[in-house]
Amino acid sequence: MGVEKPKSRLSAIVTRACRLPRKVAGRVSDLSDSISKEHLKLIQSQNNFPYKYVTVAILFLLYLPLMLSFTYVIPPQVELTLGSEVDTVQHCDIIPISEEGVTHALLLNNTPFSLTDDWELGWGLRWMEYDINRYGHNESDGYHFTSSTLEYSNIVLTRVMQIPLFNYSDVTVSVEIEGISGGAATYLEVFVDDARAVSEAVIVPNQIHQVNVSAPLEEARLESSSWLGTVVCRLQIGFSEGAHVILRGIVIGAEFTGKMSRVQFDIESTENVSLYENPSMKYLEYSPQIMIVQNNDSSSVGKYSPCRVDDEIYLPPGIYEGVTYWDFGDSDSSEPSNSSLWGPDVSFIVSEDTALEINVRLFVLKLDIDVSPSVLLKSMLIYINDDYRYTHSTDIIGSTVYSDIPDYFYIPGNIDSLTVSIWFWTSFSPRRGWGFPSTPNFQIIKEATFGMNNNSMNLQLGVHLPYAPIGGFLLGLGESIILISIGFLIIGFIISLRRVLRNSDLRNRLSDSRILPLLMLSAGVFLPWSMQLSTAASSSYDGVYWISWFSIPFMIRWSDSTAIQLLVAVPDWLYASLISTFLLFIPLFYGYLSLSSPETENFDKAFALALFLPILIVLANVNHIPISVATIAIGPIVVIAALPVWLLRLALRKLRITT
Q: Which of 111, 247, 325, 390 could link 382 by a cystine bridge, Cβ 3.0 to 4.6 Å?
C-alpha cells in the first residue's frame, strides 16, 4: 500500500465559516416567512379585487339620474269641484273727495328706488339673464345692481300707464343712476302708443348720471283716434363683468294744458276685494276694461285698463260715460260677443275742485288652486270659453323664480267652459328645460263645462302630485329608487373594500400618506359644489334656494313655500354622469383599493393620476360653480386640495420632518 495523502481541511474551514448561528438562522427563517406571508397577502388582496362590483357600480352611477323618471310614471290626481254661490249683482261706487285741481303732477316718484309693484321686471329678450336676488339689493340710497357671472347681463324695468293725450303738454321720465365700479350703460325708452323717444348713457364709475326723456306726445296725437293713450316707460341697464351701479330714483312728471283732477279706479270682485290684490292677476292676457266716452263724443272712445290697486289717472273736467267689460281680445268692444259679460255703467262727472274714487264691482268667479305638495310652477294657462285666457309662465335663472303657484285667480262669471293647463318643473328641467323632452304626466289639463245650475259658483282645483313629503323632502318613486340604489352602492363599496383589505396589515400603517387625500376626495363628492341659501329682501321675485352636486350630478331646490325637490344639476346629465364616473368615482375606487398594497418610497404615479383626474371635473363645471359670498362652493375646493395635500405630505416625509 502506498502512503495515504492527508485530507484537506480547507473545505471544512469554509463550511464552518459560512454556518449561521442558530439565533441568527432562526431570525432569518422568521423574516423569510413574514416576507412570504406579505407576498401572499398582496396576491390575495389582488385576487379579491371586486371587478363585478365596480362594473355594476359604474352602470348605476351612469344611469342614476335617469331613475328620477320613475316618479312620472304615476300621474297626478286632479279634481275640479264647485264651491260657494256667488252674488251676481254688479254695481259702481263713486266717492267724491274735496281736492283742488292741478296743472302739473308727479305721476310717480320712486326715490330712493326700490322694486315695488310700480315696476315689472321685463324678460322679453331671452339673453337678458339677470338674477335679481343674487345680484341686486335695496339700500337707503337706492337699489344696488352688480354684474352677474355672465360676460354681459341686462335687466329691464317696465311701467305702463294711461293718460288723456290731448290734455297733457309734457310727460318727462328722469332716471338718476350712479356708477360705483366697472362698465355699465342705460337705455331709457318712452312709448306713447306707437311713438317712441329714447335716451342712452354710459355709466362712469364715481359719477352720478341723470337720464331724461320727454314722451313723444305730439307724434302720438297725430296718429291717435282715441282721447286716451298708453305710456310705456322701459329702462334697460346693461352690466359688464365686475360692474356695480346704484339706481337712485325714477321720477315721472307731467304738465297739463289746464287744471286736471285726480281720478282713482279700482275693479273689485263681488266680495268687494280688488282684483289686483292678487299679484297673479297681472298675468291676465286680456283684462277687464272700461270703455269711456268723453263729453258725449262717441267718435272718440277711450279704453281704460286699470292694472293695479287704486290705479290713478288725471282727467280734465267733463262728463264721462262708460261701461265695464271683459276684453276677449278678438271681439269688438262696442259689440261684445257675450253681452252677459258686460259690467255696470261707469258714469261720472269730473270737476276742478273734486277728486274721485271709483270702485267697479264685477261678477267674477274665484278659482282656488290647491296643489299638494306644493312645488314650483313652470307655466299655467286658463282658457275661458275656449279663448279668453290667463298666461303665467316662469323662468328660473340661477336662484330666482318669478312666482310660485298662484293661490287663486278671478275669472269672468257666467261662462260656458273652462280649461286649466298646468306644467310643473320636472326633475329633468332644473332651470328652463334645456334639451329635455316634456313629461306628459306632469302636464295637467282639466276641462269643465257650465250650465244654468253652476255658472255662478266658485271653483276649486285640487291637484295631488305623486310625492310623499318626508321631513321637508319630496320623495316620489324615482327618488326612493335613487336613495335605495345609493344605499346599496355604499354598502357594496364598504363590503368590497373590507374584503380587499382583509389580508392587509392596514392597522399598522395609519401613517400612510394616501389616507388623508382619499378622505378629502370622498368628502368632496358629498359636500355642496354650489349653493344658494340666501336671497335679497324687497324683491318682486320669490326666493328660490338650491344646493348642487355636479359630481353626481344632482341638485335639490326649494322655496319659502315649497318642499325640497330633487333634480338633475345640468341638462346634459348623461355626459356629466359619464365624466364623473370615469374621472372621479373610478379614480376614487382605485385609490381606496390601492391601500391594500404597502406604501413604497417611490413616487406613485398611478395614485397621483387618481387624485389629478377629479380636478378636471371641477374645471369642466367651472361655469356652473359661482364662487361668491352668496354661493359658497365647498366640494370643489376639497377635491382640488386633495392632490396638493398628498404632495405636501410626501415632501415633508422626504425632508424627514414627518414620518
A: 390
